[in-house]
Structure formats: structure tokens, C-alpha cells
Amino acid sequence: MRALTYHGRREVSVDTVPDPEITEPDDIVVQITTSGICGSDLHLYEVLGPFMGEGDILGHEPMGVVVEVGPEVAAVAPGDRVVVPFNVSCGTCWMCRQGLHSQCETTQVHDYHSGAALFGFSKLYGQVPGGQAELLRVPFGNHLPVKVPDGPPDERFVYLSDVLPTAWQAVSYADIPRGGSVTVLGLGPIGDMATRIAQHQGAELVVGVDLVPERLERARAHGVHTLDLREHHDLGAAVRELTQGRGTDAAIDAVGMEAHGAPVARAAHQAVGLLPESLGARMMQRAGVDRLTALNAAFDVVRRGGTVSVVGVYGGAADPLPMLKLFDKQIQLRMGQANVRHWVDEILPLLTDEDPLGVDHFATHSLPLEKAPEAYGAFQRKEDGMVKALLKPSAA
Questions:
Q1: CA distances from 332 to 239, 294, 306, 312 (A)
Q2: pTM of the model
Q3: Residue in 2, 337, 12 with CA at minimum distance from that of residue 136
Q4: Segment 187-208 mean pLDDT
């Protein structure tokens, strides 16, 4: 089969690799029809290279059609259309039963003290082959895949793999009161979708912050009050001006480790990426420092007694936090990988022809799998108005 594989920092290519096979009695194999490119993929492309292996298959936002099932699979059958959540979660362990699928005890990566394994996401999370490929082996076939109806285009459902549950969890963790307010930092796919979900759930004021014109315009078109970072040097003051001097009830950090405006941490990230693999990995695990610009901005814009929800990915081990500010402002802080399977039942009823969250036209680009290397580069450089790209490995 053809698959997008990793070959070094900012170097990926579409190669011919062996087809996946059933190895456990509850495995399934899915022919991938659509697979998204995520901002987290860019962390592997850029910052987390020391944890990648030559030829690793990327991608964790796939959907497609079941083509083979193991002898113990009863929940799906060949021909069924499914979305594959990015957490590799068993659905039956203690953590999964609590709704914490990102902490699945069956697939936790003990070598790196990490939570549940993830598709296409480095040694830190199990080095499981990903879904930017023509075929994907999916374990736990009775619990993990999400069966979706035939008929509507893939664009209706593919975001159940990551974007929708991640944004849904971000808003849920933000605990925005009905009629309340939230600031969303970063208007990439997750931040953009979080603004829509917050509005859908009753937030009266949704403030979106970014510096990419196309992202700001997309959010503005959906009724978000946008703030362009290039025009607001004191973001906290701008948000407080909108909220009677208090700040918003909640803030969502949808940026994570690669925030702008942190030159020291940026240099550290670049240095780690250039080190030999084993040394770079040790440095990231023991002394890594993230660019905390977005997180510190979240602490600034949220009102006293408010909640900060962190959905952007961080990877440092020695990050300085403003503990005095956190304590003094009585800020509540929630974060973590999305527990994808936990949120699906709440989201799926919204994926209708009425399309209240605007998923049908959420993607800005749709490309064949063979164009994936160019798409990664354009996405990383924020070129060509690319906010969300979907790859099309095959047609069902």
C-alpha cells in the first residue's frame, strides 16, 4: 500500500510499504477514504522528531470502510463505514470505563510513562502505524471504531476522529456558564471548532485570538469577536475592555508548545530538533522547555475565579509556571489529550443535514495522498489559506 512516512525533520514522503494484517482476533483492517492533517502532526514534523523512527507511518484522523475483521469481531463487518478515534483505547479497562480513554490502561506506553497509545504519533505514544495511508490495522474492533451511516460525504464524519471530540472536551473542561464568555487562543482547526461549540452550547461572548488573517476571517464569519495579535500588544487589556474589566469566564489554549513570541524556547526547540536522536529525546524528556506564550496569555485574559482549559499539546519537562498568578487569581486549570470515544455519543446527533457546527465545509483543502508532503509544508508555513487539509488515499 501507499503511506506517508517520516524520514527526518521536515522530511516526509509517500512510499510503498507492506499492507497491514490481522494480528489479534479482535483486529479489523480499514480501507482509508479520508484522513486529516492535524496541527499535532506538525509537532512530529518539527519539534518531536527525536521520538520518531525512520519510516514511521503518520496520521491520526482517519475514516474509511472495513475490509477485513478478526474472528472475534461482532460490532462491525466488512463494508461498514467507520471513523477511527486517535486514542488506541480498549474500551473495557478501568480508565476507559471512567471515560478517560486517553489514559487506557491496556495501551499505556510504560517505557515513556505516557498515557494511551495513539495512531501515528511517535515512540512517546506507542509508535503505532497511522492513518495517512491506504489501509490501517485497527485493534479493539468491538469497541474502538465509530460506525457511521452511509450517504453523507466523509467531511460530515471524519472530524469525529479528533477535531470534534478535542474541541468538545476543551469547551466542556472550560466550564463556561450559559450566557457567559470565553477567549479561545489559536484559531487553527481545534480552536476554530471550539468557538463554534462554545456558541452552540450557549456562550454569549466568544473571543477568538490569532494572527493569521484567514483564520481570523473564518472565525469572524461565524460570529466570533476576533482579536488580531498583530494589533493588540496587551491582549489581557483588550479582553478586559470587552468584559467590564474582569476578563472572560474561561480561556481555552488551543495553541500549545509552538506559540509565537518566545524566542528563547523557540531556539531550544530548534536545537533539540538538530541533536542526534537519542540525545534530543533525553533533552526533551528531562530539560525541555515549552513556548508558554499562549498559556500565559490564557492566565492573563481569564477573570478571577475563572477556568483555563488547555487543549494545545505541550511536551516540556521543565516549564516555569506563574504560580503566584494562578494562586492569586484562583484559576481552575484542566487539560489533557481528548478522550475521543467518551464524547462521540454527544456529538454524533449534531452531524445532520442542518450542520449546526459547520463541518461539511470545514476543510479548506482536499488533496490526494500523494500530495501530502507538499501539504505538510504549506500547513507548517501557514500558506495558501490552509487551515484544515484532508487527504484522500482511496475511494471506497
A1: 19, 16, 6, 17
A2: 0.91
A3: 2
A4: 97
